[in-house]
Amino acid sequence: MTISEKIFALLEQKELSQKEFSEKTEISQSTISDWKRKRTNPSSDKILKICEVLQVSPYELLAEDDSVSSEITADHNIVLNKNEIILLENYRNFSSRQKERLLGYLEALRES
What is the pTM of this model? Predict the structure, then answer.
């Protein structure tokens, strides 16, 4: 899955129109349309703003790993408890380094 395909999958998942996405990212609608029509990817200077608006890490957007695409199409009917919501909200606000550290810690906990 290309970066632009992931972006459009996330837009659909988040029920966000291209126009709304354009307004939030300050990227022209024609540029966004070109990604879809010409199957091109956004330039690197736009990635961080795109990730911020779509609430994903640059790693999640740029990774070629299939696990990322399965995350994008995840079931939306999952009910989270208060602690899970807090954890998820904090995770989304972490820097890439903090996310890596947390995932490493979780892996260590699973192994113990």
Answer: 0.58
pLDDT digits (tens, 9 = 90+) for 32-46: 999 989 889 999 999
Look up residue 34 and give its two tokens: 């070109």
Give the sign of the dihedral formed by CA 28, CA 51, CA 4, CA 47.
positive
CATH, range 3-72: 1.10.260.40
How many Å apart are CA 1 and CA 26, to the nearest integer?
A: 24
> Where do we find the tokens 């979780």?
106
The domain spans of the chain are 3-72, 82-111
The residues, ordered by sequence, that sit 6+ positions from 68 with a Cβ below 8 Å of its Cβ are 1, 6, 60, 61
